[in-house]
Amino acid sequence: VLSERLKKVTTYIPIESVIADIGSDHAYLPCYAVQNGLIKSAIAGEVNQGPFDSALSQVKALRLENQIEVRLGDGLEVVSPNEVNVVVIAGMGGQLISNILNRGKARLEEVHRLILQPNMGAKFIREWLEANGWALITESILEEDEKIYEILVAERTETTNPLSDAERLLGPFLMREKNETFIKKWEREQMNWKRIVNQLEQANPSEEIIDRKRDVLKKIQIVSEALK
Ligand code: SAM
């Protein structure tokens, strides 16, 4: 059975799409999406041999080779520019996801929707989207097995509506919705940051320490404001 997290990701795939799932691991997401008639076909990309092999055997075991092609390669390298119209990248850090998008920009020409699920550091993705002509159309947050995950859905935009610092960190949709999971996540983060500030206060106040402390205090303040 597919995790609630990946199931939720599939709900943002427009029907009949051709998708690329980058970092597909066991190819669970594309297999589920094809088996449930949610998509036309998929490319499952993997950079590592082990997960590539798992993806391949999963696809073969389910006899989905006609609809899912498993390809070995780094990031968006595995797709050519006109092949897919939706890209999914799930289960990695936000920095890695935005790095994959940035290096693969040229392969995104025909792509009209990105569905991104960072395990942390969603802020890096929001920054990348903003800088590259994409706008968030929705976001969601969910908890599974004690972990909290965010899902960011973006489409191309002509208009630039810059995000505020708070929106970049917390997510414009998520901070407006402010559900229980959102509050739980950011209360947790705040506790960690407060611990960090305490540690920084024990250290020698070098310029670097002072800068770091200022950054963390700023984030604490943004979150306090948002949770009010
Ligand atoms: N997407 C699945 C999910 O959400 O459950 C699997 C997530 S798994 C934690 C991350 C996968 O991304 C690993 O299988 C890893 O090999 C792959 N990966 C990491 N960097 C990659 C890259 N640059 N290109 C393609 N795959 C990558």
UniProtKB/TrEMBL annotation:
Gene3D superfamilies: 1.10.287.1890, Vaccinia Virus protein VP39. It comes from the Bacteria. InterPro entries: SAM-dependent_MTases_sf, TrmK. It holds the Pfam family TrmK. This is tRNA (Adenine(22)-N(1))-methyltransferase TrmK. It comes from Pseudalkalibacillus berkeleyi. The lineage of its organism: Bacteria, Bacillati, Bacillota, Bacilli, Bacillales.
